[in-house]
Specification:
The chain is α/β, with parallel strands linked by helices. 45% of the residues lie in helices and 17% in strands. The chain contains 11 helices and 11 strands.
């Protein structure tokens, strides 16, 4: 198992506790890459989880490169990539490994994932298209909830109640067959954070391996809490990843289209945030954050500068 952490001590501790309290019946190695955290994450691991192989990085390598550092050192037949804000429920790892044992054409399998309140979290996605990105950017996805036609990349219309081959599994938790990594390659290190799951799953399918959602395994994901204190930083990282992906996998006109959709989305978001602040003389914290995020994304988009780090 590989976990990459950056200033996520509390969540990382909960994740490792869940593994220690209900270990799988199979032999398991845990590798944690600490991306130059300043919150004591590495010291906590050394003190509380001596069996974990800790890889200290002198700099923040990003999610994809951090995972690759550990994947190269893994010895197992199957490699689980798990976010630090995930709680692995009992039996989950064994269920995923059993599924891969029984389905040799599957290269990547992911569990059913819940929010901390045990409501369903969407972890199945479709490959990005101009249409499904427009549906998200314009609000059509929200206006027509449950619609397949107006859905964005996330398959919110899918109840996550049955085994299903999907385009993409969200990268918070998946288990990958070693042979698939050998055939497909490692994560794209040009994606500092976000988008690595979409890119790798696309390459996985292209290489002849299936990507499958399996609800017989379960986990909890406290999504968004680690990145919440840095909204502008991570919004820019996500925007850069989208542009990198479209540059890599689509034509010039596709790239032009997605840049136009991103521009439209942030212009719309900035306008609504500004109007909300004007309508409320005391201002709105949420609107102010939205305005700052969209302003930063618009500046970078219009400048044409796309740094590869968050």
């Amino acid at each position: 198992m590989v976990i990459v952490g950056w200033n996520a001590r509390h969540y990382l501790e909960l994740c490792l506790e869940s593994l220690a309290e209900a270990p799988p019946r199979r032999t398991m190695e845990i590798l944690v890459v600490d991306n130059a955290s300043t919150d004591g994450s590495a010291a906590m691991i050394e003190a509380r989880f001596p069996l974990v192989k800790l890889i200290r990085s002198a700099e923040n390598l990003g999610f994809a490169k951090g995972n690759n550092v550990a994947i190269r050192q893994c010895r197992g037949r199957y490699i689980a990539l798990v976010n630090p804000d995930v709680i692995v429920l009992p039996g989950c790892l064994d269920a995923l490994a059993d599924f891969l044992d029984q389905n040799p054409k599957v290269g990547n399998v992911g569990p059913r994932v819940f929010n901390p309140d045990m409501t369903q979290q969407s972890t199945c996605r479709r490959f990005p298209t101009l249409w499904n990105n427009f549906c998200s950017a314009s609000g059509l996805e929200t206006a027509f909830q449950g619609s397949r036609f107006f859905a964005g990349e996330h398959m919110f219309f899918f109840p996550h109640d049955r085994t299903l081959a999907v385009n993409v599994l969200v990268g918070c938790f998946s288990m990958v067959r070693r042979e698939a990594f050998e055939a497909v390659g490692l994560l794209d290190e040009g994606l500092f954070m976000y988008g690595d799951d979409v890119d790798w799953c696309r390459r996985c399918w292209n290489a002849g391996w299936q990507v499958v959602f399996f609800p017989g395994a379960r986990a909890i994901h406290d999504r968004g809490k680690i990145t919440a204190p840095y909204p502008v930083r991570f919004a820019l990282a996500q925007q850069r990843s989208v542009i990198h992906y479209w540059t890599k996998h689509h034509s010039f006109f596709g790239l032009l289209g997605i840049r136009s959709i991103i521009l439209f989305h942030h212009l719309l978001r900035y306008t609504f945030a500004a109007l909300s602040i004007l309508a409320n003389s005391q201002g709105s914290a949420k609107s102010e954050v939205g305005k700052q995020v969209s302003s930063a994304c618009l500046r970078e988009l219009l400048s044409g500068s796309v740094p590869n780090k968050a």
